[in-house]
Each structure stands twice: as structure tokens, then as C-alpha cells.
Write a structure and sequence with these properties.
The protein is mainly beta and 147 residues long. The chain has one domain. The chain is globular and about 45 Å long. This is Zn-ribbon domain-containing OB-fold protein.
């Protein structure tokens, strides 16, 4: 795609976060799961937020969640160039079916249509040679039933 906008800033990938970005590059949604208590953790961290155990295993997570809260951004901060093409941005806190809460963009949804309690599903967008980013979109079945 060509436009006159600067490229979007890329995530600062670390050894701690690389598996998350690399999996999304391949279209897979993974989170760290505690092998002791089973809690899924997000953001990536060296120990479990529930019980403190380490290390955590990168594990395929269910790609569905429920919108906990949302906001719509109609402008881009000066230090975040490149996002103008996506305006307005629908940004949500999403309670994943596997238990973690994630901040993410919801696409394929008009700002007036986003709702607390809306069921959403993950899709991954390719953003660089080594990373993809999970985003969400309204669940196509429009079901409120948990899968
Ligand atoms: Zn744990």
C-alpha cells in the first residue's frame, strides 16, 4: 500500500515478547500460561501474575473475548505518526475467554457499533518482517454465547 503517511511505529520486541509477535506473524494467537495454576498472563512477563511461578509456557489461547470497555480515537498523537489511515480507531479492553484482559484495536466495526459485552474474535495483521499484531473484530456469528 502506498500513501504519503509515515510508517506506523513498530513494537519494541524483546526476548520476553518475541514469541507473542512471532506467533502473530504466523496468524497464531499465543499467551503465556502458567504450568502451575493454569492462568493465562498478558502482558508477557517473567512470572505468573496469579501465583508467582516461573517460567511461563507460550500456549495457543482461544481467539475469542468480550469487550470490557472501549474508546474511539478520532485523532493521532503527534508522537504516533502513521495511524491516520486507521482513524477513527476503535480501541478496547477485551476480556479473553481464557481469562487475561488485553488492550487491542477492534477493526471491521464502526465506532457507533462498538458495545460493552460485544463478542469479538482475533485476527492477526502482518506488521513487519518479524512481527504480526493481534487485533479483534466482531464475532461473525453475533452470538452472545461463550464458545
Ligand atoms: Zn500461576
Amino acid at each position: 500500500m502506498t500513501n504519503n503517511l509515515p510508517p506506523k511505529p513498530l513494537p519494541a520486541i524483546t526476548d520476553q515478547t518475541r514469541p507473542f509477535w512471532a506467533a502473530a506473524k504466523q496468524g497464531r494467537f499465543v499467551l503465556q500460561k502458567c504450568s502451575d495454576c493454569g492462568t493465562f498472563n498478558f502482558h508477557p512477563k517473567p512470572w505468573c501474575i496469579e501465583c508467582g511461578s516461573r517460567p511461563l509456557a507460550w500456549t495457543a489461547a482461544r481467539p475469542h473475548g468480550t469487550v470490557y470497555s472501549h474508546t474511539v480515537s478520532y485523532s493521532v498523537a503527534m508522537n504516533y505518526p502513521g495511524w491516520e489511515v486507521d482513524l477513527p480507531l476503535v480501541l478496547c479492553l477485551i476480556d479473553l475467554d481464557d481469562g487475561a484482559r488485553m488492550y487491542a484495536q477492534v477493526t471491521d466495526c464502526q465506532p457507533d457499533d462498538i458495545r460493552i459485552g460485544m463478542r469479538v474474535e482475533v485476527h492477526c495483521e502482518d506488521i513487519s518482517a518479524e512481527a504480526g499484531i493481534p487485533k479483534f473484530r466482531p464475532l461473525r456469528t453475533h452470538s452472545t454465547e461463550r464458545i
